[in-house]
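Q: A reviewer asked whether we had any structural model of the full assembly, not just the individual parts. We don't, so I'm hoping you can provide one. Inputs are below.
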Amino acid sequence: MISPSPAHLASEPLIDAAALRARIAELAEDIGPCYAGEVPILVSVLKGSTMFLSDLTRALPLDLEVDFMSISSYAESGGISGVVRIVKDLGSDIGDRHVLIVEDIVDTGLTLNYLRRTLEERRPASLRTVSLLDKAARRIIPVPLEWRGFEIPDVFVVGYGLDFQGRYRNVPDILAVRDLAKLANDPSLLVEGLFSGG
Ligand code: IMP
Ligand code: MG
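A: Here is a predicted structure for the entire assembly that you could use as a starting point for your response.
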């Protein structure tokens, strides 16, 4: 639930928990039939996509497996390098399996592009992606995205798995940060009005 946020707060609601729930139910209805009779492996990219994975898997009327991968991107000073490294690899062999990458957000597309190339080399039976959010306007590399929850504008968002410096992942709604430079200066900036427990 989003409570009316005073104008001085540093973020504004973008997608609330009810809208997330409704859209994920729709995605599950679209995705389910594509895997009828199969046991797909859903590959979640840590850590941002875990909330989405958890809700999506429970909405999918399918027998499925989940696996996790962790990657880190090297940001060059002043921007994005496009160089990505696997920090934690999958535990399962995806050869001949139907693989669905579950992402929180596709921004420049560099991460997903790297991930797709890496997983493709392992010869899965199919490789598709669902991303909860799509910042399509920021794309540098065109990359296939079979399903997306919401297209969002070029704003920095937190909540529902998405973080700023590791924080705010547990906010139930997705919030748009009004002033990223201000937040960088004071990473606790959003706390007021979000958490009452301290
Ligand atoms: P890409 O390689 O530029 O597509 O970046 C994808 C990754 O950048 C995501 O998996 C997120 O970790 C991060 N990211 C991009 N935009 C946001 C945002 O608005 N909030 C939080 N993380 C973001
Ligand atoms: Mg991510």
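A: Points you may want to mention in the reply: The first helix runs from residue 17 to 31. The beta strands are 11-15, 41-46, 65-74, 83-88, 98-106, 126-134, 147-151, 157-158, 174-177.
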